[in-house]
Amino acid sequence: MATETRVFLEVRRQLQSALLILGEWKEAGLLVDISITPSSLQMKTPEGCTEIRLPAEVRLVPSSCRGLQYVAGDGLHFRLQAQAAFSTKLVSMFTQSLQAQDVCTFYCQSCGEVVIRDRKLIRVLPLPSENWGALVGEWCCHPDPFANKPLHPQENDCFIGDSFFLVNLTSDLWQSRPELAPVKMHCLSPENHFKLNPKANTKVICKRCKVMLGETMSSETTKFYMTEIMIQSSERNFPIIPRSQFVQSIIAQCLVELSSARSTFRFSIQGHDGKAYILFGD
Prior knowledge:
- A hairpin with a 4-residue loop joins strand 1 (about 5-10) and strand 2.
- The strands form five sheets. This protein has a seven-stranded mixed beta sheet, with no helix packed on it. The protein has a four-stranded antiparallel beta sheet with strand order 1-2-7-6, with no helix packed on it.
- With about 280 residues, the chain is mainly β.
- It starts with 6 loop residues before the first strand and ends with a strand.
- The chain is built from three helices and 19 strands.
- The longest helix is centred in the C-terminal third of the chain and has 18 residues, at about 245-260.
């Protein structure tokens, strides 16, 4: 019987690349002949041969194997080109519901108060994931070209994050401006998209129902939470949806999209006070 080893394969569909890790063998000095085909992995030792078949949707390009590296305590690391043709493609409902060139109105979902009226969106773009900076090393062979360059929307832009919308309010005069309440300074990770001035960081409060809608990120940029804001075409009326139903649908969709982009995940749902209400992962 062939010696067992741990095998880990992470496929990044959009980058068309794969990371293959072969765990360390228990027997020191064991000779192993490793063969990679488009659909399988073979490991031959004096004791026998082990073949691992890949999922039908995944195809590797053996000739593209590069970056061979041994990591103590982990094993052999390979990088290859890969193709992953899944039967269904997940499309963000937030990107799908917002289309460029649309004239939209932003509402407070809790009470229907108009927050931004008749905003024409020229560009509707998704933001990279929160920890995108950790992957820059795989994209570039030179120093990080994105360092110290925050991703702020320009006029008539709407950037869509994992759980928020970013809009530029430079030239927008709100007819019913939400209230601004100061908040305490807090520390941010270096992976965040913004460099915040804590003294200027304020909550955005609905003027009618006093619900927290988001926060100002700079003098020009405002972040609106997806669970608090509803964006509709100005030609349509405000839809009345029960609050609990709306929040549940938004959170469920966010979790589906986040989990589909990760091989493993652990999510925590927290309140504004930082208290965790639920933690789950895979």
